[in-house]
Amino acid sequence: MCAGGDCVKSSPRRDPGLQPERTILAWRRTTLTGACLTFMCYRAWTSDRCWAASAMLTLSALVVALLCVGMAIRTRRYRLDHASPAVLPTSLFVVTIAVTAGVGMSLLVTIQHT
After folding, report:
1. How far, CA to CA in Å, does 108 sit from each of 41, 49, 93, 101?
2. By CB count within 10 A, which of 68, 70, 83, 88 is most buried?
3. Angle between helices 19-47 and 51-80 (to 10 degrees)
4. pTM for the whole thing?
5. Residue 108's closest CA among 36, 32, 49, 55?
6. Are 37 and 67 in contact (CB under 8 A)?
7. Residue 67 near residue 30, CB atoms below 8 Å
8. Which pLDDT score is estimated for 82?
9. Is the pLDDT of residue 7 over 80?
10. Among 76, 108, 75, 71, CA closest to 93
11. Quick check: 35 pLDDT over 70?
12. Which tens digits make up the pLDDT trace of 61-83?
């Protein structure tokens, strides 16, 4: 009970367990998948050097770069403080979504072009 309104709400220390490590490993797998997609885009670009294939290759490489940056930021934060629930900057998330949408649009244009 509180005496005289001097209640202080204290939250228990967060015990993240292995969740941050699993998250980092999941993002590594996602980045590897993006790298494979980039190599497939490169192969498509070498066979048909149209502007849509160039855009798809460039944007997919940018997605992989953004994933690497985000993963590096998250890994560094996790190693500094295991209990920190800090998330990545929203701007990085928005840029990654926009570039991924660009890859999808380039892929649609490339498919319709062939």
Report:
1. 13, 16, 23, 11
2. 70
3. 160
4. 0.60
5. 55
6. no
7. yes
8. 63
9. no
10. 71
11. yes
12. 888 888 888 888 877 877 777 66
Per-residue pLDDT for 53 more than 80?
no
Give 93-101 contacts, CB < 8 A, sequence gap 24+: 95/66, 96/63, 96/66, 96/67, 96/70, 99/59, 99/62, 99/63, 99/66, 100/63
CB neighbour class for 19 (10 Å; exposed up to 12, middle 13-18, buried from 19) = exposed
17 Rama class: left (phi>0) / alpha (psi -120 to 50) / beta: left
CA atoms of 51 and 69, how far apart (whole Å)? 27
